[in-house]
Amino acid sequence: MSKQTDQNYWGNGAVYHALLALLLLLMALHPVKAGDGVVTRITLAAILAACIWAVARERRLLAAALLLGVPAIALVFPVSGPAGIVGPALAIAMLVFICIVFLSRIAGHPVVTAGTISASLVVYLLLGVIWYLAYSLLERVSPGSFYGVAASDGVATSPELYYFSFVTLTTLGYGDIGPLSDHARSLAIGEAVIGQLYLVVLVASLVGMYLAGRQPQQGPE
Question: Which of residues 144 and 49 earns the better pLDDT score?
């Protein structure tokens, strides 16, 4: 991989570190309900903006990211009417797109650096956010899809579903919140399976490469 291509893929790794920090911040701030979830929505908007930054060096990817990301950011705040459905749907599409881009970058530059580790963690945490948005969207379209969830007027203001998503991703399964509808159960099964496959296949591979002593020549610091 040439130096120019490597820079297009990774830059200096700052975007992955920034995304990881924002995702951890979202995890810390999500229970804060002040201002009808405005803190959560601001953090989600920042995550989407950072995702656009992550592909800024590649013109075709940037065009797709702008097409999905800008409307998603614009519709993060409305929580009623069609915008309350379209915004989260676009955010899901954007985050899925970014996960695919990051995974292809990791596969195309299989060396262990601070940047690749951050990118791997970002994808894992984004999976939890994607399913959280999907659960929230399902609950909005079909109320009563989950038990143990308080009624909420906004897709981005459901701490219970955010908690449920990460509990499912890690297969902890406490049982205080759970799916009732067939669609909710299918989503939960998909998240649990993909979460475990991700840890086994990708993270284990990165650890194996590190232990095997495969040192990077170029890549994010």
Answer: 49
User: Which residues are bridge partners to 171 per DSSP?
Assistant: none
At 150-208, the pLDDT tens digits run: 765 444 346 788 889 999 999 888 888 899 999 999 999 999 999 999 988 887 777 77
Rounded to 5°, the CA angle 111-117-120 comes to: 105
* pTM of the full structure: 0.85
Could you tell me the residue ranges of all domains in the chain? 3-211
Residue of 24, 33, 14 whose CA lies nearest to 153 = 33
Distance separating alpha carbons of residues 1 and 41, to the nearest angstrom: 38
Q: Are 19 and 54 in contact (CB under 8 A)?
A: yes
- CATH class of the domain comprising 3-211: mainly alpha
